[in-house]
Amino acid sequence: MAWIYLVLAGLLEIVWAFFMKKSEGFTLLAPSSITIITMIASFSLLALAMRSLPLGTAYTVWTGIGAIGAFAVGIFVLGESISPMRLTAGALILAGIILMKVSSTTV
């Protein structure tokens, strides 16, 4: 169950990062509210996952899901630039997430 919480927390991190961008520095009410609500939910799920997962694994996977997701949203939704170096960086982050999961002793 901890891994499910962790993945959901990571997905919510993508949501809050996107809406933080859309909030224009917390000057728009709706995106700002969505940012804060999804941040609280994401941190809460991360805390639940950390009850049984090691800190290093949980935090790395959580931030990695958020980083890769925000990277993808930036490219596909916001039209941010894409380059071989950015793709390589994303692939390395993804490889790190996979290695953390594989090396974790908690199922």
From TrEMBL:
State the protein's name.
Guanidinium exporter
| Transmembrane regions | 27-49, 61-79, 85-102
**Bilayer disposition of the protein:** Multi-pass membrane protein
Supply the InterPro entries for this chain: EmrE-like (IPR037185), Small_drug/metabolite_transptr (IPR000390), Small_multidrug_res (IPR045324)
Q: Which PANTHER family match?
A: GUANIDINIUM EXPORTER, SMR FAMILY PROTON-DEPENDENT DRUG EFFLUX TRANSPORTER SUGE
Q: Domain of life, per the record?
A: Bacteria
One example of a Gene Ontology biological process annotation? xenobiotic detoxification by transmembrane export across the plasma membrane
Query: Which positions are tagged coiled coil?
Result: none
The alphabetical list of record keywords is: Cell membrane, Membrane, Transmembrane, Transmembrane helix, Transport
* Native source organism of the sequence: Ahrensia marina
